[in-house]
Design a protein that fits this description.
2 domains, alpha/beta, about 15% strand, Aldehyde Dehydrogenase, Chain A, domain 1, six-stranded mixed beta sheet, Aldehyde Dehydrogenase, Chain A, domain 2, seven-stranded mixed beta sheet, 17 helices
Length: about 475
């Protein structure tokens, strides 16, 4: 079955799901050894296709840093698979639950994580392999079968992913559906046993609505405006350099990137000075060099330029940190810019930026910062930089976000053992590690009757035993 044509793909994708569901029913609870074999194959696939993954990323992004390709898109996924393979036998074990021996005697209760069945994965363009093969790790660890829908904005990566998967797995275990907008619209309307979507909140809402027609459970990994909060003692070269470095991963095209900085008003000029110093020492020619990821397409590049034009038109100070930096129409490179103290109604303060633009807002008090964050949508991540643990604890406990980092930004998304996801507008559900295993498992509650119980008292006709149980419960 060729899934390249949108119309053909939509017609035949349901057939592919049915075939995978039939295969699942023939083996609805794969052994730990089977799952480990699948995970080992996945890790090996990523490593063996390493050179071609690097080529495909460069083809789709114009430029894509080799180190980022290796560390994030290849080794990150392979390491995640190795971690799951090591731990899946423990994850699969039934989880005991307490029972009242006075009522249930020697009966036992436990939770059995069982596979859900056939899972769909709708992948965004910014991390074509990390967000396709990455969640596949936990889906396979949980014993599921999977169909992946890559983004139409990264066609070279999509075609390579299809080739990789076809060469590594039976199609009744993992398949790849390549297609355009119509396939993307049709994908969430089908009867999946679970669906993962990664992308914007606007599209995520449409996906959730489409899936709801079939009561398909969804995991939504969405975006948001992730703030970095600096305190007086953290406006230093190390912190500023770290924030700028994180911002330049994928040239800002990352959902957990720092979307804006909150800096003590008295330290605003120092932040700018340190940012200029860092750029002068480390970012000369960066936007036209091999370490800069290209903006995905001209539409996104023009949108980012429009954000800066709007800021300038409103009188904001816009600082291009890279000396001599300019837009590169061929490489689609874009230099990093600071926007100083933008008003809240600017587009770049209302929408996720997804590019190398960093608004810097001064503040007067920590309460002001916390109140401002809590008045907005709940972000995918919050990052606080301070040497005062009490301040970090206060921000962590008084704000709600999908993830949180102290003296770092975005690193929580790189830890295989740490569940990753959002809340509210930034998403729902988790993948990565044990949390991802549970996300893609049906947590079946099981009771095994033993001896010496009184559970017959729960059913009619009610008599002396039921009265005695009620009296004992009320007296206790």
């Amino acid at each position: 079955m060729d899934l390249t044509s949108d119309s053909l793909a939509i017609q035949k994708l349901d057939t592919r799901i049915a075939s995978q569901k039939a295969a699942f029913l023939r083996n609805p609870y794969p052994s730990a050894q089977e799952r480990q074999a699948h995970l080992s194959a996945l890790a090996g696939m990523m490593l063996s296709y390493r050179p071609r993954i690097i080529e495909a990323l460069n083809a789709d992004f114009g430029t894509h840093p080799r180190a980022a390709s290796e560390l994030i898109e290849v080794l990150g996924v392979a390491g995640r698979a190795a971690f799951a393979a090591e731990n899946v036998p423990q994850w699969m074990k039934p989880e005991a639950r307490a029972t009242d021996p006075g009522l249930f005697g020697t009966g036992k209760a436990y939770v059995l994580p069982q596979p859900k069945g056939v899972v769909g994965n709708m992948v965004p363009w910014n991390f074509p392999f990390d967000l396709s093969a990455g969640p596949l790790v936990e889906m396979l660890a949980a014993g599921n079968r999977v169909v992946i829908k890559p983004s139409e904005f990264t066609p070279a990566c999509a075609e390579l992913l299809r080739e990789m998967i076809a060469a590594t797995f039976d199609r009744d275990l993992v398949d790849v559906a390549v297609g355009g907008l119509e396939l993307s619209k049709g994908f969430p309307t089908l009867r999946w046993d679970h669906l993962l979507f990664t992308g914007s909140p606007q599209v995520g809402r449409l996906v959730a609505l489409a899936a709801a027609n079939n009561l398909v459970p969804v995991t939504l990994e969405l975006g948001g405006k992730c703030p970095a909060i600096l305190t007086d003692d953290s406006v230093d070269a190390r912190t500023v350099g770290h924030i700028l470095g994180i911002k330049l991963i994928k040239d800002g095209q990352m959902c957990i990137s720092v979307d804006y900085c909150l800096v003590p008003r008295a330290k605003l000029d120092e932040f700018v000075r340190l940012a200029r110093m860092h750029a002068n020492e480390h970012l000369r020619g960066h936007s036209q060099g091999p370490d800069c990821t290209g903006i995905i397409n001209s539409r996104s590049l023009n949108r980012l330029r429009g954000l800066l034009d709007e800021a300038r038109s409103r009188g904001c100070e816009v600082i291009t940190l890279e000396e001599g930096g300019s837009f590169g129409p061929d490489s689609r490179g874009m230099p990093l810019s600071l926007v100083i103290d933008p008003p809240e109604d600017l587009t770049l303060m209302r929408e996720e930026i997804f590019g190398p633009i960093l608004p810097v807002k001064p503040y007067n008090s920590l309460d002001e910062v916390i109140d401002g964050i809590n008045q907005g949508e709940r972000p995918l991540g919050i990052y606080v930089f301070t040497r005062d643990q009490a301040i970090a604890d206060q921000v962590e406990h008084r704000t709600i976000s999908g993830g949180f980092c102290h003296n770092a930004a975005a690193v929580h998304g790189a830890i295989p053992s740490l569940g990753f996801g959002g809340i509210g507008q930034s998403g729902s559900g988790r993948h990565h590690g044990f949390d991802g295993f549970r996300e893609f498992s049906n947590l079946k509650g099981v009771f095994v009757r033993g001896e010496g119980d009184h559970i017959d008292a729960l059913a009619p006709p009610y008599g002396e035993l039921a009265s005695a149980l009620i009296a004992a419960a009320l007296s206790g």
